Amino acid sequence: MEITMTNSPLATKKTIGLTSDNIAGVSPQILQHLIEFSVGDATPYGNDELSLELDRKMSTLFETEVAVVLVPTGTAANSLCLAAMSPAWGAVLCHPNSHINNDECGAPEFFSNGVKLLTIDGDDCKIDPEKLTQRATLKIGDVHTVQPAVVSVTQATETGSVYTLDELRAIGDVCKSHNLKYHMDGARFANAVDALGCTPAEMTWKAGVDALSFGATKNGAFGVEVIVLFDTSLKNEIEYRRKRAGHLMSKMRFLSTQIDAYISDNLWLNNAQHANAMATKLRNGISAIEGVELLHPSKTNIVFCKMSPITIATLHEHGFEFLANRWGDGVARLVTNFATKAEDIDAFIDVLSASDK
Ligand SMILES: Cc1ncc(COP(=O)(O)O)c(C=O)c1O
Ligand SMILES: C[C@@H](O)[C@H](N)C(=O)O
């Protein structure tokens, strides 16, 4: 049964969304898959045929044996992972700008019964390995202080930068030397794979990563993230924690179906490639305009730039939706997605170049 896209009010909106990749709809391939797999009965709680196949299919994608746990949000994926990777008296070492530190309302601390997030600075939104080593070796065994237990990196980062494979491996080496577990927030994992031109394996377990939040929601799915465990011993605990968190979906087939479609025919990577290409088009257009400053070098789908209040107002008045001033006065964050249209980027650049600065 083919889906026909109705003329929904959203489809005829006159605004152009650059607020986040969370604004995007759903890839037609995923919708089609959902329709096909929504017919008939299926054993609930992840015991349906499709769900039971995902460990094997994700193991193929990552070229090693993995265990997967599906949840509906990225915050759940991050928090449940970190809770299982650290004792309650442990510390998660993360960048100050990390999502787990700023945008998850204390969920990592809550689900872990009090794990402390300790921030480790570094340029370009990336943890500095030397600063990491300094903090990871402080007060070890001192009963009066939390004990470093996990390092969490975001790949791609919150500013759109990406750790190089060498940088990921350097952090992995610190983890190995100091008996720390290694977590990756991969809400924009596909965008980073495309930007680096590497394989999923090279960007994860081959660098020492133990657990990954494999993002899909921002990149074509309508609400599912995959906890990918390279340390498969974590699976049981995370499954119990998922149930206690109220995130064990009874109709799990509808999450599994999304992921099954997402990892088929390279949809996950093709979507990210398009989003990244649209952001590159945006950066190239902005770089030619006086009075607008590109910030934070990025090869993925996030573009930060600094512009005058009048320019921001002009763009908003012309129907371009994006977050501004949240990261500093005049700083705008522009985020493209798998469905961003080239003509909308052209229109944005036209208005930007014509506006007063
Ligand atoms: C880097 C990063 N990690 C995790 C998340 C969490 O995702 P969610 O909003 O689905 O909880 C987001 C937000 O979309 C994000 O940008
Ligand atoms: C703002 C943040 O929570 C969200 N993840 C975004 O990037 O849009």
TrEMBL record:
<feature type="domain" description="Aromatic amino acid beta-eliminating lyase/threonine aldolase">
    <location>
        <begin position="18"/>
        <end position="307"/>
    </location>
</feature>
<comment type="function">
    <text>Catalyzes the cleavage of L-allo-threonine and L-threonine to glycine and acetaldehyde.</text>
</comment>
<dbReference type="GO" id="GO:0004793">
    <property type="term" value="F:threonine aldolase activity"/>
</dbReference>
<keyword id="KW-0456">Lyase</keyword>
<comment type="subunit">
    <text>Homotetramer.</text>
</comment>
<dbReference type="Pfam" id="PF01212">
    <property type="entry name" value="Beta_elim_lyase"/>
</dbReference>
<dbReference type="InterPro" id="IPR026273">
    <property type="entry name" value="Low_specificity_L-TA_bact"/>
</dbReference>
<dbReference type="GO" id="GO:0006567">
    <property type="term" value="P:L-threonine catabolic process"/>
</dbReference>
<dbReference type="InterPro" id="IPR001597">
    <property type="entry name" value="ArAA_b-elim_lyase/Thr_aldolase"/>
</dbReference>
<comment type="similarity">
    <text>Belongs to the threonine aldolase family.</text>
</comment>
<dbReference type="InterPro" id="IPR015422">
    <property type="entry name" value="PyrdxlP-dep_Trfase_small"/>
</dbReference>
<dbReference type="InterPro" id="IPR015421">
    <property type="entry name" value="PyrdxlP-dep_Trfase_major"/>
</dbReference>
<dbReference type="InterPro" id="IPR015424">
    <property type="entry name" value="PyrdxlP-dep_Trfase"/>
</dbReference>
<protein>
    <recommendedName>
        <fullName>L-threonine aldolase</fullName>
        <ecNumber>4.1.2.48</ecNumber>
    </recommendedName>
</protein>
<keyword id="KW-0663">Pyridoxal phosphate</keyword>
